[in-house]
Amino acid sequence: MSAQSKKRTVVENGDGGIDMALAASIANSEDLGPIIRHTFETGKPEALLHHLRNIVKKKEVEIEELCKLHYEEFILAVDELRGVLVDADELKGMLSTENFRLQEVASDLLLKIEELLELYSIKKNVTEATQTLKICIQVSNLCITCNRHVSEGRFYPALKTLDLIEKDYLHSIPMKAFRKVIEKQIPTMKLYIEKKVCSEFNNWLVHIRSTARQIGQLAIGQAAAARQRDEEMRARQREAEEQSRSVVSDCVYTLHTENSDEDSVLEFDLTPVYRAYHIHTCLGIGEKFREYYYKNRLMQLNLDLQISTAQPFLESHQPFFAQIAGFFIVEDRVLRTAGGLLLESQVETIWETAIGKMTSILEEQFARMDTASHLLLIKDFVTLLGATLTRYGYRVTSLLEILDNSRDKYHDLLLSDALLFFRARCLSNRAVLH
């Protein structure tokens, strides 16, 4: 209801209407502001107060009547509430007593639980420490094993041990300081092993160059012995054929030849080469060692191909060619047994270099020769050199061509020597006659 409608209702109904309007508004929980404002505007606030008192009296009467109807139930509810309060006090006391007893009983238990938790923490720490020490002890034992292998010169087992530490144990080491020490030492140890095998290989380079001449001389000696046996066998065959023609046909002659022992095997140690190459391969730098080997051997060959100027070629040619023969016998063995250290193309390259240098030297020296016997001596040794290296698969066509080309030179020197000999004999005979 709006304020204007309420005003009209109050005006139309008079004092009795105000009483009813107030009662209705209060019952409906409506706003009493318009009624109060209208009352003060009309100058009758006392009437409003009177009506309000009447309404209060009516409500009090209603409340009193309502209480008279339900007072017994209210008293019972209050009594029940008091009983609940007593029960609550008793329950509170019981709870307090039980709580006190529980605290007494649980205090020791709490102490035990705290001790148990502390023991669990200690156990966890001890377990972690034990595992840490176990791993560290295993790594330390592997390090000791690696050091022992290195001190004994067993580099491959040492590298395998280092790989085992690096792949299986390094990342699981819980102690950071210890792990850093191991991480730092592994490359250092690998570098030490590399330097050690390189040092052994360098010593082998020096040794094999000093023994290459002996190897070459032995191989050339074997070729000379084989040629001698062939010549003796052919001579015996011719002798047997002549004897068979001079006797009756029903006689049978048998040619007995001695079974010559096989050529002794040329022995030289390639173990440092095999080991150095294998260790470098395990370190992942096999190509580096292949280049290092080829470079150093090529340098040695270039030194070997320099003829001595301190003595005549007639005196130095045998050591010179024996040194080269020994060099290429070693290279052939390395090519066949070192598992890819040398390529066949590399050996062919250095052989072409060597044979080119040897043919050049022979051409120059043959041009300087003035004695047929000297020329024949050198040609014979070069022939044995060619036969020796042919057995190892090297092509010596260029050397043989040089020997063939020197045939005219040999004939000229032989003729010159014969003329000198004839003149000398003539002069000696003439001196005797006079």
Account of the 3D structure:
- The chain has twelve helices and no strands.
- The model is unreliable at 1-14 and 247-263 (pLDDT under 50).
- It has a domain at 194-240 and 267-432.
- Helix 10 (372-391) runs antiparallel to helix 12 (407-433).
- It is rod-shaped, with a radius of gyration of 63 Å.
- The chain has 434 residues and is mainly alpha-helical.
- It starts with a helix and ends with a helix.
What level of helicity do the residues show?
over 70%
- In N-to-C order, the SSE pattern is HHHHHHHHHHHH
Average per-residue pLDDT, rounded, comes to 83
Would you report the number of β strands?
A: 0
Sheet of most strands: none
The coarse silhouette is rod-shaped
Straight-line N-to-C gap: 189 Å
Strand content is under 5%
Low-pLDDT segments: 1-14, 247-263
Number of H- or I-type helical stretches: 12
Which class best fits the helix and strand makeup?
mainly alpha
Radius of gyration: 63 Å
Keywords:
434 residues, mainly alpha, EXOC6_Sec15_N, EXOC6/Sec15, Exocyst complex component SEC15A
